[in-house]
Amino acid sequence: MLALIAGQGGLPLALAASLGAAGTPYRVYALEGFAPDLPQVTVFRVEALGRVVRDMRKAGITEVCFAGAMQRPKVEMGKLHPLSLPLVPRLMKVIGDGDDRLLREVIAIFEEAGLRVLGAHDIAPGLLAPKGALGDVAPSETLRAEAARGAEILRVTGPLDIGQGCVVAGGLCLAIETLPGTDAMLRFVAQTRPDPGPGGVLVKRAKPGQDLRIDMPAIGPDTVAAAQAAGLAGIVLQAGHILILDRDATRTAADAAGIAIWGVT
Amino acid sequence: MLALIAGQGGLPLALAASLGAAGTPYRVYALEGFAPDLPQVTVFRVEALGRVVRDMRKAGITEVCFAGAMQRPKVEMGKLHPLSLPLVPRLMKVIGDGDDRLLREVIAIFEEAGLRVLGAHDIAPGLLAPKGALGDVAPSETLRAEAARGAEILRVTGPLDIGQGCVVAGGLCLAIETLPGTDAMLRFVAQTRPDPGPGGVLVKRAKPGQDLRIDMPAIGPDTVAAAQAAGLAGIVLQAGHILILDRDATRTAADAAGIAIWGVT
């Protein structure tokens, strides 16, 4: 049996829909405060993590998939379940090393308990960005050059474990994605552009060597709206490494906004 | 005779005050739209650049210093002075390559005309950030570790010619400076922090290999206020590579805010 460990946003819903359509049984677990809008969610506090892993095993769960946005929850030491105690020093050790390192440790905890950790792309490969144009607007030569500059920026910043996106316009980098995420970055661009476009491209790529089972970058119709508000003319995605939530709505929104959206290797 | 090619912000004023105190004669030139609050400024449009360089020579100018913020002005081709025509293809060629490359070309144009280009630090070395604590608040071990992470981030991003600052808190990168500058970055942090501090550090460093004669990073009392609004606990500067405008007011503001401000190599 598969368990979705679900956070917020559209991804858990898209996965649930995909699993439902395929007739695959699954359960949904969620951290308190980040539960998705799905029925029959088992909510738990992070202090109970050790117990939850044991309970999953007892309930016949063999595979888990982390899906959707979760911020780091505050841990109240007084509420720790005894089974979580061995995990505290492990997680404390990596808590200052960036999200990637912390999430790899969380994966390891589940795997050591005998649970296989899958990525969203393992469950629903149809969500992955394809290569080539997604909509009707073809990217100009200028956009392609800006996309190449953005890809170079993300290749360099990737090992720093900072973020998975940037905005390039007129050959200049207007923003690099950090902890607050893509939408916050696009709002920053909308607020700070002296001359709000149209022009420039949002570049989304996974970090080089990133474990795609956790924190795979995702976009959707909201991303297109935010890119439009920022005056951008394009969105370029790393094919096979970015999830597109609601592809039809995303393509329709991009076409309506005159935004080129395409995948590259 | 020295000419300040002055933009906005506190730097041209600080240099004028420093030159005045030393009894050094100077003239002030400024791009239309970016003139500083100084008397007797010769304002010119970018289309007249070729003529301005010739006029400087005629007026006995031998040295120039670029000081203060200027955005890229719009060029109206119909207004180009004949002496500017040879500069157009040179500047167009590098206009998409980032600010550094463009500014190096501008420096080259002045130097080829026989004008020596000085940095603000050549004229007023007293403005440079010193090594060690600037104010009364000592940086904690946590702040020093965050400062080291920020320095590493800027060492990696430096060659990309993106910006000269970042914000690190709790081991995580909250923001990387891009075109809109330090204040815009700090406003972004203030807006997006889920838990606005206090904590975290603003890191300011020159880009590795940067020509300090143009676009040397600068901070001042306003930077301290913006860092305080973002909930930060420290500001760390690359000694000898950052200008501090109004050092007394900057130190007083940092002490009053309980912000550690210090220089490192």
From TrEMBL, chains A, B:
Gene3D superfamilies: 3.40.140.80, 3.40.50.20. Residues 130-262 form the LpxI C-terminal domain. InterPro entries: LpxI, LpxI_C, LpxI_C_sf, LpxI_N. Residues 2-127 form the LpxI N-terminal domain. This is Phosphatidate cytidyltransferase. It comes from Dinoroseobacter shibae (strain DSM 16493 / NCIMB 14021 / DFL 12).
